Amino acid sequence: MTTVRIDARFKALKAEGRAAFIPYVMGGDPSREEALAILKGLPAAGADVIELGFPFSDPMAEGPPIQKAAIRGLAAGFGLRSTMDLAREFRKGDDATPIVLMGYLNPIESLGYDAFAVYAADCGIDGLIVVDCPPEEAAPLIEALDRVSISLIRLATPTSDDERLKVVVQGTSGFVYYVAVAGVTGVKEADADVVAPAVARVRAASGLPVAVGFGIKTPERAAAIARVADAVVVGSALVEEVAAAVAANEPAAPRVLAQVKALSDAVRPVASASVAETV
């Protein structure tokens, strides 16, 4: 079940003939005030969709930069519900930019699938990525999300063969997130030549736009991936700007938003063949 905002945004980008830029930021990092300032500034800096992480004590798919961001968020008193509350604040000034919540299953299970889904919808969440929820166990969560029109967005990886892709895309809506490199976030670099055929394969299996993340840190790399994908996701490079601001005792928002603009500017001129072909 594709939400209105996600569907509308990818439709508009297809008409423009370009890929989306999707920045990842962590809820509460490094403080509520700073996190909200970053979140509110993302659309003007060039974000087409926002990926909002919620702090969790065991982020197993993340490399050191996002692990440290989670620690800062937890230290600021943030978790799942308080991160969704940030989205609610953001929605007071922006009713168009899609927000995809990203994190791990344990806090969602603790809240309860139905209670989580209702609260997320009320806060203006459009999609959900749960890193550690296998398709075989996702039916109750999908049912809860479908009742409030929130998309469950799946991860496909370099090790997902054609048979596994059929399973992965079941119940998936909005877009598919392709993990460009094996391993954790923020360590290896994504190679556009390697990513291109994988994106085509994932799109053929799903019929959905394909966003590529993991291993994209520079404007040059983002531009290369944008030529072969429907969206480019960058996370570690942005939370590293937060860490640098904290170390320098400076506000984080200006640093992060400047980096978002540099990355989104690199993506925007690129007319993606993938976007043009997506149905």
What does this structure look like?
It is a single chain. The chain is an alpha/beta fold and 279 residues long. It is built from 13 helices and nine strands. A nine-stranded parallel β-sheet has the order 5-4-3-2-1-9-8-7-6. Strand 7, helix 9 and strand 8 form a beta-alpha-beta unit. Helix 2 (32-45) packs parallel to helix 12 (252-267) and helix 11 (236-247) packs antiparallel against helix 12 (252-267). The longest helix is centred in the last third of the chain and has 16 residues, at 252-267. The two termini are 16 Å apart. Residues 183-187 have low confidence and may be disordered.
Brief overview:
This protein is an alpha/beta fold and 279 residues long.
As a percent range, the share of strand residues is 5-15%
How many helices in DSSP terms? 13
How far apart are the termini? 16 Å
Overall residue-averaged pLDDT value: 92
Biggest sheet record: 9 strands, parallel
Percent helix range: 40-55%
Cross-sheet strand order for the largest sheet: 5-4-3-2-1-9-8-7-6
β-strand number: 9
Shape: globular
Based on secondary structure, the structural category is: alpha/beta
Element-by-element helix/strand order:
HEHEHHEHHEHEEHEHEHEHHH
- Unreliable spans are 183-187
What's the alpha carbon Rg, rounded to whole Å? 17 Å
Oligomer: single chain
